[in-house]
């Protein structure tokens, strides 16, 4: 798992695609990257929620993890190399979204975040074997 976790400041996919947009009525999803910093945004045309990308998951197809108001979220859109763009994250195709907050992302449980964090620490600071 650790090999599939990438910090946004070292994410070649986001750097190579500085602005990606996907629309699934009534929401528009955007990921914009400037100077190795990526921001994930969702708008309903009236309001927008944004957060800096915390981690990227995936070696080809990528989803993103971000923090907002003390909670961690997984993006509901992912990058797909086959289309060189965004589309709905696998497994989220059937979701019925009732508001912008739900469209922003899937709230992750504490154990999921802890597992990802542990994997990232092992990747960044491997121990001698």
Can you walk me through this structure?
It is a single chain. This protein is of the alpha+beta class and 129 residues long. It has one domain. Helix content is 19%, strand content 41%. The chain contains three helices and ten strands; from the N terminus they run E-H-E-E-E-E-E-E-E-E-H-E-H. The protein has helices spanning 12-16, 100-104, 110-124; strands at residues 5-6, 19-24, 27-34, 37-43, 48-57, 63-68, 71-74, 77-80, 85-88, 106-107. The strands form two sheets. Strands 1, 2, 3, 4, 5, 6, 7 and 10 form an eight-stranded antiparallel beta sheet that branches. Strand 4 (37-43) and strand 5 form a beta hairpin.
Task: Give the secondary structure arrangement, pairings included.
Layout: E1 5-6, H1 12-16, E2 19-24, E3 27-34, E4 37-43, E5 48-57, E6 63-68, E7 71-74, E8 77-80, E9 85-88, H2 100-104, E10 106-107, H3 110-124
Antiparallel strand pairs: 1-5, 2-3, 3-4, 4-5, 5-6, 6-7, 7-10, 8-9
Brief rundown of the structure:
The chain has 129 residues and is an alpha+beta fold. The protein is built from 3 helices and 10 strands.
Per DSSP, the total helix count is 3
Shape: globular
The largest sheet is: 8 strands, antiparallel
Return residue spans where pLDDT drops below 50 for at least 5 consecutive residues.
111-129
Order of helices and strands: EHEEEEEEEEHEH
Radius of gyration, in Å, reads 15 Å
Binned, the helix content reads 10-25%
Number of domains as seen in the coordinates: 1
Class of secondary structure makeup: alpha+beta
Q: Count the E strands.
A: 10
Oligomer: single chain
Q: What integer is the average pLDDT?
A: 82
